[in-house]
Structures are given as structure tokens and as C-alpha cells.
């Protein structure tokens, strides 16, 4: 049984994801908008949040440091902490992330990895006290990994928080139950940043159906939209 997955994002009017690159507004500042986003994050009461490799790299900031020697490593799973109050989950198919600690703001780190990740990288994660799940299929088996997160760690509500590629992959596989989107009164304007969700040339037409649950005007000119998602 998978957790309930809520894709929780904030974007400019034209879909940009990086507030540092947005225009300013007399209604509020970038700091005001990100504070509202974090407030809504907390109100959603997730027991885990998930991001892709690029987003997590901004927080992990480690260098490769595999153990010089290691014995047999655990596959497909290793859980260093099953009792955490909250989990920070990174999707890192190729094993490129390296960490300086095993938590982010108190949330225990779990890494989802591709099936060909080397044992040396798994040994590094284990020695750092970080949990991981390795896919048993050539392509990342997201449904099975979500089931494992629920079964092994008790995760019942997961907040999916980008970037656009991982959001698109989850939506394409019918794994998102709700979209929670804050829209700030700002513009990005760069051609490469026009969506909080991306799924290559194929797109998502015919893969999901959205139904509006609520629309709320927040402080600082921010609109808060929530949609139920039905896979198709």
C-alpha cells in the first residue's frame, strides 16, 4: 500500500520554480512567498517529503567518501532509522548525491537508487547512517518503492516537492493523489522554466485528470490551489 502523495509546489505565474529569479511584487517579497509555502507544507502534515537529485544536491553538499574497505552491503534496502518523526527522501537514480550528515532539519534521509548503483556507494550511505532503497528493476520502480516506504517506515502521507522531472514521473505513473500549488504574483520569463511538472516530449495528456478542491487567496498576493488527481 503506497502513501498518499501530495505534490506540493510554489511557482511564478509562468511556472518558474526558483524564487531568486522571479520579479518582485508590491504585494510581497520572495521571502514572504517561501514562508507561506513552508506554512502550507506544515499544515499538510506529511510524515515525509521527497525531492529529486538536483533539488537535494542544494542541501546535501557532500563529496564522495566511500569506505576504503567494506563487507557485503544490504540490497535492496537498508534502514538506519525506522523511528524518525519525519523523513527526507531523495530520488537519486545514478548515486551521485553525497551527504555530510544523515538528516536535514531533523528529518532522516532516505535515498531511492537505481539497480546498477555500485556497492561502494551503498557502503558510503550506510556508514553515514543514511537509509536507502535500491530498485529491483532496470527502470526505477517507483510504485514498489512507495510500498516499501509505507510498509517499512510507516510513511502514510508523502509531500512530493520537485523538481519538475520527478513530479512528471510520479504523475505519469498515476502515483499522485493531490496537487497543492501556491502561485506567487511574479514572473520568471526564462524559456527553460515554464512548468512545475515535466514529462519529456510525450507530455501528460491522457494520463491524469484534475478536479478543483479549493482556491484560496493568501497573504502577499499568493493564490493557493488544491486539486484532486485521478489517474487515467
Mind explaining what this structure looks like?
- This protein has 232 residues and is an alpha/beta fold.
- It has two domains: 1-47 and 156-232, Dihydrofolate Reductase, subunit A (3-Layer(aba) Sandwich); 56-145, no CATH class.
- It is 22% helix and 27% strand.
- The chain has five helices and eleven strands.
- Strands 1, 2, 3, 4, 5, 6, 7, 8, 9, 10 and 11 form an eleven-stranded mixed beta sheet that branches.
- Helix 3 (119-127) links the parallel strand 6 and strand 7 (131-134).
- It is globular.
- The chain starts with a strand and ends with a strand.
- 37% of the residues are buried.
CATH homologous superfamily designation of the largest domain: Dihydrofolate Reductase, subunit A
Give the CA-CA distance, first to last residue: 19 Å
CATH topology of the largest domain: Dihydrofolate Reductase, subunit A
Average of per-residue pLDDT values: 95
Calculate Rg over CA atoms: 18 Å
Order of helices and strands: EHEHEEEEHEHEHEEE
What is the domain total for the residues? 2
Q: What would you say the CATH architecture of the largest domain is?
A: 3-Layer(aba) Sandwich
Structural class: alpha/beta
**Number of DSSP helices?**
5
Number of E strands: 11
Low-confidence stretches: none
What is the approximate shape? globular
Instruction: Give the CATH class of the largest domain.
Output: Alpha Beta
Beta-strand portion reads 25-35%
| Biggest sheet architecture | 11 strands, mixed
Helix percent band: 10-25%
